[in-house]
């Protein structure tokens, strides 16, 4: 993208063309893709109660639901295969999308994950689920590198976290659509139909994305991106690509990656284990749990948008990019901490799931607000030609951290819930402290520093 254009005062763009409202159409497409992305990965968690009757999963009907070591191990193993593949895929996907561009890279990613999602419907063993989850993870790993690259190409700094918060709220919207959809199609045609239903939505999105003239309508670079491109000019290869070796020299890459590694597993814990938590602690079926799941994800959507808007509001009122991002992240980190009290709720309110649900909802909303700002930092620190690569490295770290946290969860959630929720409560404060140590000043170029 050209960076030799005149700056439009106050716009945040080097030209006014990029500031058109078309960018919000792009944000809408990113929202739909993210919604489908989370629907496809979460179906496995939603059909978990139905898998009790699938012989190869190992549920023991003679034992109580808190003592199902074979089933729990199989269920957790399938999830871990997804997370590992998701992490490995990030490393490749980020680089591929930077090479192919947002339009082609995104299309390839959703084609792979949509087909992989539908393939779950034909498995006949735990190993089959694992293979399907591997390909699902490889495809889904392209969503965020592509989406965040798109945001860096279309949105100025002050709007970036808001845009991320909006499209990332698709992860919550999926929870509004998926449970009733899964419940309906599973009741009518079996659990296999749930995977076909969500996977086919990805194919529909692919048609929309193919028809949208992304590259023709995109304008010039944002002013922030123009400055970052100049900062990385010496390292850039012909064609504008920045070698991975140059990116690995920047502490911002490690700050983002560690932020993801320390907190992604907490979000995945809510996604994959919340239906199980409500079932085992409060005897709620998926249908009965829907109002509680709905509440968590509606509140999460509010947190995603509010948290993303907070940093932009702070910048609009005179705060620097550094202060705006980090104050917002600190507020979100503190809002997560009451989740430590969740394990006590089933004792205090043995038949009422709402207190525990609302604490989890607050934590999930804070996570989404945190993520909206953390996801924006690659665009604050790297040019758009490298954003997907940086997000890919961070996503890989997040997947490794998520797999590690899942390993802890599957061995401790039934009998040691306080340990799990204590780790979830403290992860964000630790992550922010690490980020601050590595990047004391976001937005300060290395040359200036």
Automatic annotation (TrEMBL):
The record's Gene Ontology cellular component field reads: membrane
Name of a matching Pfam family: MFS_1
Record key words, sorted? Membrane, Transmembrane, Transmembrane helix
Please list the residue ranges annotated as the Major facilitator superfamily (MFS) profile domain: 26-443
Is Transmembrane tagged as a keyword?
Answer: yes
Q: Transmembrane ranges?
A: 21-39, 75-94, 106-136, 189-212, 253-274, 294-315, 327-350, 387-409, 415-439
The residues forming the signal peptide are none
Name the PROSITE patterns on file.
Answer: MFS
Q: Where is this gene product found? A: Membrane
One GO molecular function term of this record is: hexuronate transmembrane transporter activity
* Matches recorded under PANTHER family: HEXURONATE TRANSPORTER (PTHR11662:SF285), SOLUTE CARRIER FAMILY 17 (PTHR11662)
Name of protein: MFS transporter, ACS family, hexuronate transporter
Q: What is the originating organism of this protein?
A: Granulicella rosea
The opening ranks of the lineage are: Bacteria, Pseudomonadati, Acidobacteriota, Terriglobia, Terriglobales
């Amino acid at each position: 993208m050209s960076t030799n254009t005149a700056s439009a005062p106050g716009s945040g763009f080097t030209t006014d063309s990029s500031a058109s409202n078309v960018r919000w159409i792009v944000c809408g497409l990113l929202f739909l893709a993210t919604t489908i992305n989370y629907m496809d990965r979460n179906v496995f968690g939603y059909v978990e109660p139905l898998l009790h009757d699938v012989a190869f999963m190992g549920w023991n009907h003679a034992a109580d639901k808190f003592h199902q070591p074979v089933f729990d191990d199989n269920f957790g193993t399938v999830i871990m295969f997804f997370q590992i593949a998701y992490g490995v895929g990030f490393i490749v996907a980020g680089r591929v999308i930077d090479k192919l561009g947002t339009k082609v890279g995104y299309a390839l990613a959703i084609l792979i994950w949509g087909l992989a999602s539908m393939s779950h419907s034909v498995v006949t063993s735990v190993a089959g689920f694992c293979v399907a989850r591997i390909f699902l993870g490889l495809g889904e790993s392209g969503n965020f590198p592509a989406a965040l690259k798109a945001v860096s190409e279309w949105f100025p700094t002050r709007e970036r976290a808001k845009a991320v918060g909006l499209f990332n709220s698709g992860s919550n919207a999926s929870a509004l659509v998926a449970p009733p959809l899964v419940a309906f199609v599973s009741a009518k045609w079996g659990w296999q139909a749930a995977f076909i239903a969500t996977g086919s939505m990805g194919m529909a999105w692919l048609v929309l994305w193919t028809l949208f003239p992304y590259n023709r309508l995109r304008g010039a670079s944002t002013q922030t991106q123009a400055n970052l491109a100049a900062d990385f000019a010496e390292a850039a290869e012909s064609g504008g690509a920045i070698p991975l070796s140059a990116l690995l020299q920047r502490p911002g890459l490690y700050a983002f990656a560690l932020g993801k590694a320390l907190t992604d597993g907490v979000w995945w814990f809510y996604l994959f284990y919340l239906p199980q938590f409500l079932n085992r602690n409060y005897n709620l079926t998926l249908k009965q749990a829907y109002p509680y799941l709905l509440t968590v994800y509606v509140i999460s959507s509010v947190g995603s948008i509010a948290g993303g808007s907070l940093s932009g509001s702070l910048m609009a009122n005179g705060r620097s990019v550094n202060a705006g991002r980090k104050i917002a992240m600190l507020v979100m980190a503190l809002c997560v901490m009451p989740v430590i009290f969740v394990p006590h709720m089933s004792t205090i309110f043995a038949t009422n799931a709402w207190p525990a649900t609302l604490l989890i909802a607050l934590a999930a909303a804070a996570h989404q607000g945190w993520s909206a700002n953390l996801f924006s930092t690659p665009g604050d620190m790297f040019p758009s030609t490298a954003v997907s690569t940086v997000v890919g490295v961070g996503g890989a770290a997040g997947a490794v951290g998520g797999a590690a946290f899942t390993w802890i969860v599957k061995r401790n959630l039934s009998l040691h819930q306080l340990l799990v929720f204590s780790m979830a409560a403290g992860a964000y404060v630790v992550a922010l402290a690490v980020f601050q140590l590595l990047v004391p000043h976001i937005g300060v170029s290395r040359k200036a520093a």
